[in-house]
């Protein structure tokens, strides 16, 4: 039986007379790679923020693992198995790369400040385990050799990878990626596609939901794509179906979907 990790029903977000999102519904299935695209001003960022709990809907419902997302704090969102990155990178730039990833393990480990202060042996064992897992994660992202460098000194592409690594540290079942290829060249974008796909293949229950302007990244990575225009869902299908859709091409004013 297919497991639904997130369900949205007739979600709307209005800002005065502007209907940024207008009646969106979806069911995100476990273990899928899912893209969200649409022309400029389609409401993609608003919808992404709604689904990831950053913005409350005007009406409609969004449930993560059966729990309403509206009003859920970021820590609660994380404990229910979801994590996200941001279009504007949000790292602890004065911490090291390793420290940034360790911060991501906070929600997925059973370590506590009190146990650390008391110096309990279980805390020490747990700390060693988390350090080992953090190192393995950095190795997978090609950042282990730089683990003791400050995040502020990383290249833009490495900062993008570090943010995804930190999100993965919480061991999410649902990973939201907000324009992960933004600012990358074609080669860096292809590397990112390969990295995300490898993560997904190694975590078969992981669902990835990404918003991305780089159509090449979306088409290569996604198994299914939602297309938004003027706040409404106009198409949902495979990359091949999206490419062949007259409705989608019209929304993009005849633009090349492969560009």
Tell me about this structure.
With 259 residues, the protein is α/β, with parallel strands linked by helices. The protein folds into two domains: 169 residues, Rossmann fold, CATH 3.40.50; 77 residues, no CATH class. The strands form two sheets. It has a six-stranded mixed beta sheet with strand order 6-7-8-3-9-10, with helices on both faces. A four-stranded antiparallel beta sheet has the order 2-1-4-5, with helices on one face. α3 runs parallel beside α6 and α5 packs across α6.
Query: How many β-strand stretches?
Result: 10
What name goes with the CATH superfamily of the largest domain?
Answer: P-loop containing nucleotide triphosphate hydrolases
Rg computed from alpha carbons, rounded to a whole number of angstroms: 19 Å
Q: Number of helical segments?
A: 10
- Beta-strand residue fraction: 15-25%
CATH class of the largest domain: Alpha Beta
Would you identify the CATH architecture of the largest domain? 3-Layer(aba) Sandwich
CATH topology of the largest domain: Rossmann fold
In what order do the strands lie side by side in the largest sheet?
6-7-8-3-9-10
pLDDT < 50 stretches: 109-126
Average pLDDT over all residues: 86
Compressed to H and E, one letter per element, the order equals EEEHEEHEHHHHEHEHEEHH
Report the major sheet: 6 strands, mixed
First CA to last CA: what distance?
A: 37 Å
Structural class: alpha/beta
Specify the helix fraction band. Answer: 25-40%
So what's the overall shape?
A: globular
Overall structural domain count:
2
């Amino acid at each position: 039986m297919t497991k639904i990790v997130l369900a949205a029903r007739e979600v709307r977000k209005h800002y005065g007379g502007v209907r940024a999102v207008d009646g969106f519904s979806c069911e995100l299935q476990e273990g899928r790679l899912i893209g969200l695209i649409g022309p400029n001003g389609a409401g993609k960022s608003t919808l992404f923020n709604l689904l990831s709990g950053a913005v409350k809907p005007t009406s409609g419902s969004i449930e993560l693992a059966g729990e309403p997302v509206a009003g859920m704090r970021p820590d609660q969102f994380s404990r229910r198995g979801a994590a996200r990155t941001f279009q504007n990178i949000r790292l602890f730039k004065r911490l090291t790369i390793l420290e940034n990833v360790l911060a991501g393990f906070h929600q997925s480990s059973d370590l506590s400040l009190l146990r650390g202060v008391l110096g309990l042996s279980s805390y020490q064992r747990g700390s060693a385990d988390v350090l080992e897992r953090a190192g393995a994660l950095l190795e997978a992202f090609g950042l282990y050799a730089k683990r003791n460098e400050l995040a502020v000194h990383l290249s833009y592409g490495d900062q993008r990878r570090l943010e995804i690594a930190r999100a993965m540290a919480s061991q999410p079942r649902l990973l939201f990626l907000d324009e992960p290829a933004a600012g990358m060249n074609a080669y860096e974008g292809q590397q990112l596609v390969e990295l995300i796909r490898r993560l997904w293949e190694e975590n078969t229950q992981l669902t990835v939901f990404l918003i991305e302007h780089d159509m090449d990244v979306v088409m290569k990575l996604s198994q299914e794509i939602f297309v938004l225009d003027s706040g409404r869902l106009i198409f949902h299908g495979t990359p091949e179906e999206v490419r062949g859709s007259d409705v989608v091409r019209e929304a993009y004013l005849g633009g090349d979907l492969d560009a």
